[in-house]
Amino acid sequence: MQELKDKIFQAQSEGDIASLYVLESQAHETFDEDTLMAYYANILDLALERLTNALESLEKLDMNEVQDFATLRALYEYAIEHYSAGSASDASALFEVLGGISNDEPFGEAMKMHRAACDTQIPFDDFIDDYVDMVATQNGGKFYISTFKKEIAQ
């Protein structure tokens, strides 16, 4: 367990979100629920710091760069948590930022759909059931919901 903790500490001190995701399965096997929550909170803190830096320097995050990819993933997961918990307005704002900060057009388009679902107050479960093509999304190999059955009327 100490070796895992050392690897995690090293990744955290370097701001290496991607390495923290690589260590994720080991963390799940090793840590209790509270420690895992702190682990993910740290990933989110690092992602928010990277987002702040990108916004301040007016840079876009590049989906082909491993740290940017991991940052977008962490922030997307955070937005989905908000949406699934019923905080649609917070999630909408996060999806808007994510779509604007990424240089990846398909990701940006997917974030528009997520945001539209939040803005029209579609409950998360209904969004998944009625609008998301989950099979195509899973087969697409993306970390985000990427394929939809139909558009969201606004």
3D structure, described in words:
The protein has nine helices and no strands. It is mostly helical and 154 residues long. It starts with a helix and ends in a 14-residue tail after the last helix. The model has no long low-confidence stretch (mean pLDDT 94).
Task: Describe, in short, the structure shown.
This protein has 154 residues and is an all-alpha fold. It has nine helices and no strands. The termini are far apart.
Question: What's the SSE blueprint?
Answer:
Blueprint (H helix, E strand, L loop, with lengths): L1 H13 L2 H6 L1 H7 L2 H24 L9 H19 L3 H14 L3 H15 L4 H8 L2 H7 L14
Largest sheet: none
Structural class: mainly alpha
Terminal CA distance reads 51 Å
Question: How would you sum up the global shape?
Answer: globular
Q: Determine Rg (CA atoms, Å).
A: 16 Å
Portion in beta strands? under 5%
What's the tally of helices?
9
Q: What's the total number of strands? A: 0
Helix share bin = over 70%
Order of helices and strands: HHHHHHHHH
